[in-house]
Amino acid sequence: MQDVLTEAVRTLRAHTDALLAARVLTSGDQVGSIRRAVSLQAAADDVVRAVVQQAREEGATWQVVGAALGVSRQAAFQRYGRPTDPRTGEPMDTTPLDGVAELAASVIEDLATGRWSRVTDQFDPTMRDGLSEDALAAAWAQIVGLSGAYEGHGEPTAVRAGDVTITTTALALEAGDYTVRTTFRDDRTIAGLHILEGQS
């Protein structure tokens, strides 16, 4: 484990040196500077990941890790954990579905503009059987009736949980805040759609 941490720190140092050197040698290259800063950020995250894994191997609980990171133990696990699939004993894929933030945002935009069929057309068979276009429209009307017109939404966050990717998006209406939790299958169909009062 120490080798992984040493290599992560070495890579971080190389990215830091590259960013600092480029700022001197190629001043005015804002795009290049941004790209180098993003690669530096990714390298720093690799260092944190290695330190977290080392702490876990030495017995630190997810509660301790989360407290050190300033997040809940579940958020720490979702970011740095290595879940094992209980069905196979193999490590689980923790990479969210590609482009899922855009999918989640488009669902909210479709709800807000009354394009119910565009949402229900994305439902998987179970969702389609359980929630009709009319029922979806009625649910949205009830939310608008309680909290007023749609004002906007935040940037969706995504986490992979087993065979699905779950997005969480803050939703703002005139007189209330909500959280939209959308579950997507790998084929990009919607397996779950929940609009919860309050922001999480």
Walk me through this protein's architecture:
By secondary structure, this protein is an alpha+beta fold. It folds into two domains: 2-80; 100-197, Nuclear Transport Factor 2, Chain: A (Roll), CATH 3.10.450. Helix content is 54%, strand content 18%. It is built from eight helices and five strands. It has helices at residues 2-25, 30-57, 62-69, 73-80, 100-112, 116-120, 125-130, 133-147; strands spanning 150-153, 157-161, 164-173, 176-185, 190-197. Strands 1, 2, 3, 4 and 5 form a five-stranded antiparallel beta sheet that branches. The longest helix is centred in the first third of the chain and has 28 residues, at 30-57. 14% of the residues are buried. The mean pLDDT is 89.
Number of helices: 8
In the CATH hierarchy, the third-tier topology of the largest domain is known as Nuclear Transport Factor 2, Chain: A
Stretches where pLDDT falls below 50 for ≥5 residues?
none
Largest sheet: 5 strands, antiparallel
**General shape:** globular
Give a brief description.
This protein is of the alpha+beta class and 200 residues long. Helix content is 54%, strand content 18%.
